[in-house]
Prior knowledge:
- With 89 residues, the protein is an all-alpha fold.
- The chain is built from four helices and no strands.
- Helices cover 70% and strands 0% of the residues.
- α1 (14-31) runs antiparallel to α2 (35-50).
Amino acid sequence: xxxxxxxxxxxxxxxxxxxxxxxxQLRIALESNMTFVVEGLQKQLSELKSKPSExxxxxxxxKQLSELKxxxxxAPDREFQALMSLLED
Length: 89
């Protein structure tokens, strides 16, 4: 049986997108009377919803870079500071 896959809306985060995908999979499994698949997807969906959201990767990298830059600015080694300024660009 071929089912039409529902469109996934634009999600703000990876977690939201994963939840939308699991919900779409769950709807398909329910329509197809796949009892064991439904149970597994419900468990995965509840685990995913209870999992805390992760910060976006780029925001995390910027935070790490600024923390490292703060530590480097206190360092007396000019060569090391020059190297870190290259990484910043």
